[in-house]
């Protein structure tokens, strides 16, 4: 009986990660120059902005929100602005601070991005624009860059 109790206690100390739910938190689409923009040559310039945030929900549950904003211009005119806040609830347990930070800041956004990309693509096509095929994003590299930037800022302070 003691061996079973010790085994259960040891298992509770093991790191745990579980995706609980993925959902769209907010969605926005604006095409201010329609229908005139459809008559112009389609030579777009695309600007993409990524942002993540985390919220502790208590009991080892965390919400991670990935915001992807896309602005597409033809010349100087905005063809459309599309934004999605793709969110997920994750159970994350038994990690040290550095591993927890990396999991919430890079691993979870990596899981959310394909959903955000598909949502934006579908939204843009429904606006009668060409499909928006966003390239994959390396959130591990972005996380490492942000850590390096924060460490450099601390060193200068």
From TrEMBL:
<dbReference type="InterPro" id="IPR003708">
    <property type="entry name" value="SecB"/>
</dbReference>
<keyword id="KW-0811">Translocation</keyword>
<keyword id="KW-0813">Transport</keyword>
<protein>
    <recommendedName>
        <fullName>Protein-export protein SecB</fullName>
    </recommendedName>
</protein>
<comment type="function">
    <text>One of the proteins required for the normal export of preproteins out of the cell cytoplasm. It is a molecular chaperone that binds to a subset of precursor proteins, maintaining them in a translocation-competent state. It also specifically binds to its receptor SecA.</text>
</comment>
<keyword id="KW-0653">Protein transport</keyword>
<keyword id="KW-0143">Chaperone</keyword>
<dbReference type="Pfam" id="PF02556">
    <property type="entry name" value="SecB"/>
</dbReference>
<keyword id="KW-0963">Cytoplasm</keyword>
<comment type="similarity">
    <text>Belongs to the SecB family.</text>
</comment>
<comment type="subunit">
    <text>Homotetramer, a dimer of dimers. One homotetramer interacts with 1 SecA dimer.</text>
</comment>
């Amino acid at each position: 009986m003691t061996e079973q109790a010790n085994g259960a206690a040891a298992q509770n100390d093991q790191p745990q990660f579980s995706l609980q739910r993925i959902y769209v938190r907010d969605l926005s689409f604006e095409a201010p120059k329609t229908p005139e923009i459809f008559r112009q040559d389609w030579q777009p310039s695309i600007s993409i902005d990524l942002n993540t945030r985390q919220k502790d929900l208590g009991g080892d549950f965390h919400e991670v929100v990935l915001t992807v904003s896309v602005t597409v211009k033809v010349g100087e005119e905005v063809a459309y602005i599309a934004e999605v806040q793709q969110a997920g609830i994750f159970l994350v347990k038994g990690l040290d601070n550095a591993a927890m930070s990396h999991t919430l800041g890079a691993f979870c956004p990596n899981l959310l991005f394909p959903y955000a990309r598909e949502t934006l693509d579908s939204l843009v096509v429904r606006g009668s624009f060409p499909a928006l095929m966003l390239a994959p994003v390396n959130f591990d590299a972005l996380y490492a860059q942000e850590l390096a930037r924060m460490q450099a800022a601390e060193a200068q302070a």
